[in-house]
Design a protein that fits this description.
168 residues, alpha+beta, six-stranded mixed sheet
Length: 168
């Protein structure tokens, strides 16, 4: 009887510790994803530091350590990404250029499109494909406008870093 009670108590403590860990990881992820976390508050940018008078450390009686679950420690925003590479950084007008890359956290079959910066806005080029197994893609397009073309790849709502191609 005593060992059953002890076992139940240990399970309850372990479940509580795991709940606290998951809750705090979700709070950290939500704080990191919030727009207010990126920009400092103008009222708190002064040089004065807060004064604390308490030196006591919090006392915990919980000896059970939570297990690492993998998904609880990662922010959902960091799990999604896309890379892009170009086969030629300089081309002649009308010449084909191929963009390749991989994604993380994007569903296979998602539409992948090329975007270029035109008059200050990102507009879609006429090149698109579906994301293949292995989360890879390959897009080919012809660049006709002479000058620097700023291009990026978009899969769903995820965009790659900008790539510059010089068209001569």
């Amino acid at each position: 009887m005593n060992s059953t009670l002890r076992s139940r108590c240990a399970k309850a403590i372990g479940a509580g510790a795991l709940s606290v860990t998951l809750l705090s990881a979700g709070t950290v992820g939500a704080f990191a994803a919030s727009p207010s976390a990126a920009a400092p508050n103008p009222s708190t940018t002064g040089s004065a530091k807060p004064h604390t008078t308490s030196t006591a450390k919090p006392h915990t009686t919980d000896t059970a350590k939570p297990t690492k679950t993998g998904s609880a420690s990662r922010s959902p925003m960091a799990a999604v990404s896309i890379t892009a590479r170009v086969n030629k950084s300089q081309v002649k007008a009308g010449q084909s250029v191929t963009f390749t890359g991989r994604t993380k956290g994007v569903k296979v079959g998602t539409k992948v499109i090329l975007l270029h910066l035109h008059n200050g806005k990102w507009t879609a080029l006429k090149s698109s494909t579906a994301l293949k197994n292995g989360s890879s893609y390959s897009l080919t397009t012809k660049l006709n406008t002479k000058g620097k073309e700023q291009i990026r790849v978009m899969a769903g709502k995820v965009v790659s870093p900008t790539i510059t191609v010089m068209v001569k």
